[in-house]
Amino acid sequence: MNQNSKGLAVLGVTVVLATGGTIAGRSDCADDHVGYVAGQLAVADLMAAVPGLTGLPMEGDQVAQIDSKDMSLPVWQTLVRRLVHHLARPEVGSVVITHGTDTLEETAYLLHVLLQPNKPVVLTCAMRPVTALMADGPQNLSDAVAMARHPGASGVLVVCAGEVHTGLDVNKVHSYRLDAFDAGDAGALGAMEAGQLRLFRAFPVSAAPSLAGAQRLEKFLSTVALPRVVLLTSHADADGDMVRALLALPAERPLRGIVVAGTGNGSVNQTLEAALVEAQAGGVRVVRTTRCARGTVLPRPGHPLPEISGLSPVKARLALALELLAG
């Protein structure tokens, strides 16, 4: 480990894996922050737009060029393969992933569950395209690289608008503001201040490598489709028609699981609950979470539907799909 011109510890090569998103988006008008086209700039252009990266040992790898609302299993599989490849290289000390904000929390959670990396894997993004008058992408990328190269950093992390979150806790909570992410009751892991990390709590601890983890990863990379798990929401005047329609899906890819985002402490409208209990009796895995932005689902003795605590609805859907895939 040596020192660069800024006095920061140099911990090997940092690889930037680019997947598209707003951070690589363009618009015809500088004041258009919503009508842009995502995924237009190549990874080399993203890196060249941040002068502070000059002189650092950096590599770019273009994984995809998509709007993250269109994230799919094949793109995830490609990203995971490239990530596994780079993390295994002894000269690589960290990886930064540029990603769209819409599904970033799902990708971050997926990478956390599948890889539990000892090296830092830092996702970053932007809420404004590169053509905006005050684009936020270059600063976010600069902060993400500084975070990735911080001595002792580890695990899947997310950097946006100066805040650092873990892949397990992060959620997108705002549709437009630059500080679009939050970590709920857990709070931010730290903050990036003038290129330096102020750490609020410890980095996530990676699980020891295991046969079960390796098998789960192999199954994920080899599958042609994740088990069908559907996310439903409980609300006033709900009914069970959607559940019964899902149960009638063709046998080629049957319904395997349902995550219901309940009200409050995971409570479910009684009409919807009755249909979910029917689905559960028929062999479909059903779990409850909450549609509330904060808090978790506390167990209620005697409830017919089990809870999945501590995960947002979209992360709970992924967790159940991965569990079913593992068999």
Description of the structure:
There is one protein chain. The chain has 327 residues and is of the alpha/beta class. It contains eight helices and 15 strands. The protein has helices at residues 43-48, 73-88, 104-115, 137-148, 211-222, 241-247, 270-281, 313-326; strands spanning 2-3, 9-10, 13-20, 58-66, 92-98, 120-124, 155-160, 163-166, 171-172, 181-182, 190-193, 196-199, 228-233, 255-262, 285-290. An eight-stranded mixed beta sheet has the order 4-3-5-6-7-8-11-12. Helix 3 runs parallel beside helix 8 (313-326) and helix 6 packs parallel to helix 7 (270-281). The protein is globular, with a radius of gyration of 21 Å. Mean pLDDT is 94; it is low at 1-10.
What descriptors fit this protein?
single chain; 327 residues; alpha/beta; 8-stranded mixed beta sheet
List SSEs in N-to-C order.
EEEHEHEHEHEEEEEEHEHEHEH
- Largest sheet properties: 8 strands, mixed
Give start-end ranges of low-pLDDT stretches.
Answer: 1-10
What separation lies between the terminal Cα atoms?
A: 43 Å
Mean model confidence by pLDDT: 94
Strand order of the largest sheet: 4-3-5-6-7-8-11-12
β-strand amount: 15-25%
Overall 3D shape:
globular
Radius of gyration, in Å, reads: 21 Å
- Total of helices: 8
Structural class determined from secondary elements: alpha/beta
Helix fraction, binned, reads: 25-40%
The tally of strands reads: 15
